[in-house]
Every structure is written in structure tokens, then in C-alpha cells.
From TrEMBL:
Positions of the DUF4126 domain: 7-184
Pfam families: DUF4126
Membrane-traversing stretches: 7-31, 43-65, 77-98, 161-182
InterPro entries attached to this UniProt entry: DUF4126
Region annotation Disordered: where it falls in the sequence: 215-241
Domain of life: Bacteria
Key words, A-Z: Membrane, Transmembrane, Transmembrane helix
Protein's name according to its UniProt entry: DUF4126 domain-containing protein
Statement: the UniProt record of this protein carries the keyword Repeat: no
């Protein structure tokens, strides 16, 4: 593999792992076994049939869990500790065959750092988007987002294998989207859960909205000052003695 192809495999594998690790393993392993992609020696294990069988099994579980509101966010939270290290290892494995003259130790360390960062970026973008989507009451947006993520992963790996230059163009667009979108997503999530943690804040906001729209409940004035007096009693008055 050339330099461009190796870099594309490292960055593409890390990015795809942050979104869907098991689908990434399945696609890369199948492409290698079919002779469509020549994986470096350190990543040849992905073509092992027992690795493929396990990855396919876990992919099917994720395929279902990823479409159930709340369950998908729990799944993402657990996989924070799986996808990011796996993405770092995939990047390091891809870069192992690249002779940069930096020495094996330094090159591996840089590949782990960059791959982990890329995987973390795609993972937290996915997890944050899903957490925001889960605030919507309708259930269909989760399924649509899940299918779109799978298509994005498969499309990215296709460009890695057959059009690495196109992958880098798409990757640059993703980085720009990441810089713009992620702060907005997490700010929105922080506002939602901040109100949930502080009911008094949510109550005050609701009262302020009611006052602004004139839908607040009228106050009863029991003092008799500045308002209507209480209705007179129907009991007849006794004459003075």
C-alpha cells in the first residue's frame, strides 16, 4: 500500500470505529478476504473467520439496540471505552507498515494518539446527536439516524478502499462539521439535563412564559384592598336591641 492508501486506511478505520466498530471490522475483514483490500500484517487478524463471526454477531445486536430510544445512548456510553481504543489500535496497525523514519515507538505513539482522537471525535458526535434525538417524543428518528450512520460507515470504508483521495476530502468536511456541530449538540444537551437537575429553574421559566402570554392563573385577593370585595352573606341581619 502507498502512503495515501495507508493514511486513508488508518484515519478511515479510526473514524468508522467511532461510529460503528463491529460493522467496520466486518467490512475490512471481508474486503481483505475477497482480495479487494490488502490489510497490513498487523490487521490481518480482522480477516479471521472467527473474528468476523464474532463481529457480525455483535453488529446484529447493535443494529437492534441502536434503534431503541435511550437504549442507544446507554449502548454508546458503554462503547466509549471500546470504540475509541479500538480506533486507536486500527490506526496504529495501519501505520505500522509505513516507513516514516521516526522510529517504531514514536510512530506507533503518534498513530495511537491521532487514531484515538479521530475515533473520539466521531464517537462523541454520534453519541451527542443520539442524546439530542432522544429528546424528541417520536421513535422513528432513531431508526433513521441509525441507518444513516451505517450507510456513512460503509460509504467511508468504500472510499478508503477504492478512492482514498475522495475519503480525505470527505474527512476534511467532517472535521469542519465537527468543529461547528459538536458544541451546539452538547450545549443543547446540557440545557435539557440542567433543567432536569434543577426543577425550580424549569418552573421559573414556565411561569415567566405564562406571564408573557397572559395564560397565568389569576391571583385571589383576600385582603379586600385593591380588588373586589367578598360577596355579602345571605344571612339576614338582626335588628339592634
Amino acid at each position: 500500500m502507498g502512503v495515501i492508501e495507508t493514511l486513508a486506511l488508518g484515519m478511515g478505520g479510526a473514524w468508522a470505529s467511532g461510529v460503528n466498530l463491529y460493522g467496520t471490522v466486518v467490512i475490512l475483514g471481508l474486503l481483505n478476504n475477497l482480495g479487494l483490500l490488502d490489510l497490513p500484517p498487523e490487521l490481518q487478524v480482522l480477516g479471521s473467520w472467527w473474528v468476523l463471526a464474532l463481529a457480525m454477531f455483535l453488529y446484529l445486536i447493535e443494529f437492534v439496540a441502536d434503534k431503541i430510544p435511550i437504549v442507544d445512548s446507554v449502548w454508546d456510553a458503554i462503547h466509549t471505552f471500546i470504540r475509541i481504543p479500538a480506533g486507536a489500535l486500527l490506526a496504529a496497525g495501519a501505520m505500522s507498515g509505513l516507513d516514516t523514519g521516526m522510529g517504531d515507538g514514536l510512530q506507533t505513539a503518534i498513530a495511537l494518539l491521532v487514531g484515538g482522537t479521530v475515533a473520539a471525535g466521531s464517537h462523541f458526535t454520534k453519541a451527542g446527536s443520539r442524546a439530542a434525538i432522544n429528546t424528541s417524543p417520536e421513535p422513528f428518528s432513531n431508526s433513521i439516524a441509525s441507518v444513516a450512520e451505517d450507510v456513512a460507515v460503509f460509504g467511508a470504508l468504500y472510499t478508503v478502499a477504492f478512492h482514498p483521495v475522495v475519503f480525505f476530502v470527505l474527512f476534511a468536511l467532517f472535521v469542519l462539521l465537527l468543529v461547528w456541530l459538536v458544541p451546539k449538540i452538547w450545549r443543547f444537551i446540557g440545557q435539557v439535563f440542567g433543567n432536569a437537575r434543577h426543577p425550580s429553574v424549569a418552573y421559573a421559566q414556565t411561569r415567566a412564559q405564562q406571564a408573557g402570554t397572559g395564560t397565568g392563573l389569576p391571583k385571589l385577593n383576600l385582603s379586600g384592598a385593591g380588588g373586589s370585595a367578598l360577596p355579602p352573606s345571605d344571612k339576614p341581619k338582626l335588628p339592634p336591641e
